Structure prediction request, 103 residues.
Amino acid sequence: MYAIVETGGKQYRVAAGDVITVERLDADVGQEVAFDRVLVVRADGKVAVGNPVVPGARAVGTVLEHGRGKKIRGLKYKPKVNYRRRYGHRQGYTRVRIDNIQA
Prediction:
């Protein structure tokens, strides 16, 4: 059984026991989170496709950790006007273990 869930503007294919890294969630470590935007569910050879979501379906998981990704360096530059700016960014993430999928 697997499902395709949407969170943080991205889609993830998940099954029970999977560990996924998603955009930062507002939940504490060890807390249970539910992904209600389930786009597709496949169970026992049958596929349920939502329009846009499958009604009543959800994926439940447990928050394992929070963290920040690698630093990304950026540079703004405009020629002929002596304009240069450097910036850095580290995106926050949350690791979630999918416990079960309810369809």
